[in-house]
């Protein structure tokens, strides 16, 4: 039997904003240097784009704080999260295998399973959701915080103890890469631009700190439900968020902030920023009752997983279909239109926004027809 829970518009808008920016940063146009804020930090450091993925995990935790109440038995809860985990993981695996064939000089060749990436964005979401859900279901809030601290410190110590001496936080010297290669092999890891270097930014070990982002989102959602839409709620979200940001910057002197390693400091920093953003949204939407423009993000948030998957698959199609030898439709449309009308990095941004709007139109049609794809 389902147990009713109150919905907070601010949380739904937060999820929609996350999907909106996930699509934008994953689809920058080609033909010029990517507009800087749309690019990830090369290694250490932080850009606005680096905030997008951890914000989605934070939103997953928010949703858990509501859905956890809907199941009266452990069996119902475990069955649901296990089903979701398997489906999301498999969707991620198939997404990276798609379109199952690739072009050669004169024909098409099958993409063998022996060279298919195992981990990825959806796979990390699935694993972080699964373990995060187990922790918040079986543990008290205090215990969940303790587990989060253990995961953050444990990840840091593991890299220091088992990484290559002097290169513990480098792409090839970190213990996470060594673990990924040992368990999955080079051919099943991410290779940037098809190059020879095997490094997976969504690897196994760094999933541990990703779980903390889910727990952070859950604790924030549970806190908001307990305290309600009040000035006190907003103030405490800002205070805790600010403290986490300061802690991340201080700890960053010893364990640098790096999205591609998903360092403990990166997790703390992004949770802190997300808390502040959520506090701001609650103040604007729930307290001041400003609703103008919010439907745009709500529409994306109602079919978040489906629209994200569509955006990735459609982008792959555009990059696979050729309009001329060695020229994909994706590169062609950027060359003949976006880079001519908006030359340089601006063109990459305009393309990304237009592509996001195309995906939004699909979400709009689904919303109008009351079609909501859930797992």
Automatic annotation (TrEMBL):
Q: Which stretches are transmembrane?
A: 12-35, 41-60, 81-98, 118-136, 143-162, 204-225, 237-255, 261-285, 305-324, 344-366
Keywords carried by this UniProt record:
Acyltransferase, Membrane, Transferase, Transmembrane, Transmembrane helix
Which GO MF terms are attached to this record?
A: acyltransferase activity
Output the superkingdom of the source species.
Bacteria
- What protein name does the entry list? Putative acyltransferase
């Amino acid at each position: 039997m389902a147990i009713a829970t109150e919905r907070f518009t601010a949380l739904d808008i937060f999820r929609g904003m996350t999907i909106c920016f996930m699509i934008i940063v994953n689809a920058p146009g080609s033909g010029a240097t990517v507009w800087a804020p749309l690019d990830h930090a090369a290694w250490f450091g932080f850009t606005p784009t680096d905030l997008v993925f951890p914000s989605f995990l934070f939103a997953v935790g928010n949703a858990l704080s509501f859905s956890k109440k809907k199941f009266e038995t452990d069996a119902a809860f475990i069955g649901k999260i296990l089903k979701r985990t398997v489906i999301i993981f498999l969707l991620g695996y198939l997404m990276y295998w798609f379109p199952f064939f690739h072009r050669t000089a004169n024909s098409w060749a099958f993409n063998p399973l022996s060279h298919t990436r195992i981990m990825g964005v959806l796979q990390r979401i699935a694993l972080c959701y699964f373990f995060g859900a187990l922790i918040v279901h079986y543990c008290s809030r205090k215990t969940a915080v303790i587990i989060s601290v253990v995961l953050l410190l444990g990840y840091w110590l593991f890299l220091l103890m088992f990484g290559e001496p002097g290169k513990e936080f480098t792409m090839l010297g970190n213990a996470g890469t060594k673990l990924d290669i040992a368990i999955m092999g080079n051919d099943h890891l991410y290779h940037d631009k098809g190059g020879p270097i095997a490094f997976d930014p969504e690897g196994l070990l760094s999933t541990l700190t990703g779980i903390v982002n889910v727990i952070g989102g859950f604790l924030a959602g549970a806190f908001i439900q307990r305290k309600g839409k009040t000035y006190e709620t907003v103030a405490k979200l800002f205070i805790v968020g600010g403290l986490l940001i300061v802690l991340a910057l201080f700890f960053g002197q010893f364990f640098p902030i790096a999205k591609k390693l998903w360092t403990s400091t990166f997790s703390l920093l992004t949770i802190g920023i997300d808390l502040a953003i959520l506090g701001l949204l609650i103040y604007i939407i729930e307290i001041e009752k400003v609703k103008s423009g919010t439907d745009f993000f709500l529409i994306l948030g109602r079919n978040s997983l489906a629209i994200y998957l569509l955006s990735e698959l459609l982008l792959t199609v555009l990059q696979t279909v050729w309009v001329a030898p060695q020229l994909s439709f994706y590169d062609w449309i950027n060359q003949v239109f976006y880079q001519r009308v908006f030359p340089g990095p601006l063109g990459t941004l305009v393309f990304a926004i237009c592509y996001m709007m195309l995906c939004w139109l699909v979400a709009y049609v689904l919303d109008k027809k009351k079609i909501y794809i859930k797992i």
